[in-house]
């Protein structure tokens, strides 16, 4: 593997072997497998505490909103570290930054279960968030550089599918162990799984062929960021990332508290099994990415956000079957929308893609941290009904932003099917 991202090609003419990877080629398979594993390890590490929030609240004697910080502080600092991580990737290479990011995150994850207090746990989660930033900061730019534009949506869909399964395992592994042991062993089991997946990522990831390392200054980076922020369509996508992720994490942060309480009274293992609904996102992310390549991203994006909103409303009655069906639709719609929006950023930003991807992901994970903090207040005030109202308001804003992308003539012309 070429950790430095240097190309071995010395000519400027691209041969067939040096062309961007196309769907079905061995290189495309290796890239999507490696990025699938990257999504798995990142999201297992990122969300290993979400299924444990009720146990953390009980063990440390803190309210649900405080326990939820074990998720939001990680995503918050990750959002702030994404742009510096992308700058490092410009100098030292995409693959090198992703691999070291995964290794450092795993090292922190292995010692987190030793935290004696909630304060120490939160500090450790802050450090882990910084370490994790290199994977999401670089993955989108790496795919956009190495995969042919007509197959980028499908490749991005596979990466997002990996994040959905990573999110699932990040909840399912600890919740299953928690039913037999303590939250500390549950968190340790998640860390071990992340280590194994990091090995898979490092072994299968091809070296960069179209990346050239360069020295960058903060002035250059700032200029590139401003360039993207002046693009109205990219601003809309950044705002969508913030809103969608904020609403998604808000709902799942407090779903466990609802299902453990009357009238459901589910066990920890049963609540963990509810996270199997993430598999709907695994399917819809891959399908939406490919469908966006075929029929245009704007229609797929709008439909996905609407499906997510409908699913949220279905969860309101205290009927377990409706809660499960609603969360299935909510989850599938969210991951489909994220797959389309993230792939669209790479397509619209024809230069300085790392900075464009970083801005989207910075907004995305800030939404997870800041918007989800507001959900804690809503849940404390009015339970699940207030949480649905809060998330529903976010989704209405997302629908409006999706309509902006639908109606813009420039976007319609640029979003012609491949």
Portion in helices = over 70%
Cα separation of the termini? 31 Å
Domain count: 1
Number of helices: 17
Structural class: mainly alpha
Mean pLDDT: 84
Pfam families: MFS_1 (PF07690)
Family: Belongs to the major facilitator superfamily.
Domain Major facilitator superfamily (MFS) profile: 31-412
Region (Disordered): 1-25
Account of the protein in words:
The protein has 418 residues and is mainly α. The chain has one domain (26-208, 228-414): Growth Hormone, Chain: A, CATH 1.20.1250.20. 78% of the residues lie in helices and 0% in strands. It has 17 helices and no strands. The protein has helices at 26-46, 53-60, 64-67, 69-92, 94-111, 118-132, 134-146, 152-178, 183-204, 218-229, 232-260, 268-274, 278-295, 297-314, 320-348, 353-407, 409-414. Helix 1 (26-46) runs parallel beside helix 5 and helix 13 runs antiparallel to helix 14 (297-314). It is globular, with a radius of gyration of 20 Å. The chain crosses the membrane at residues 31-53, 65-85, 97-114, 126-144, 156-173, 185-205, 236-257, 269-287, 299-316, 322-347, 359-381, 387-407. Residues 1-25 are annotated as: Disordered. It is found in: Cell membrane.
What's the short version?
The protein is mostly helical and 418 residues long. It contains 17 helices and no strands.
Topology:
Blueprint: H1 26-46, H2 53-60, H3 64-67, H4 69-92, H5 94-111, H6 118-132, H7 134-146, H8 152-178, H9 183-204, H10 218-229, H11 232-260, H12 268-274, H13 278-295, H14 297-314, H15 320-348, H16 353-407, H17 409-414
Helix pairs in contact: 1-5, 1-7, 1-8, 1-9, 4-5, 4-6, 4-7, 4-16, 5-6, 5-7, 5-9, 7-8, 7-16, 8-9, 8-12, 8-13, 8-15, 11-15, 11-16, 13-14, 13-15, 14-15, 14-16
Domain Major facilitator superfamily (MFS) profile: 31-412
Family: Belongs to the major facilitator superfamily.
Membrane topology: Multi-pass membrane protein
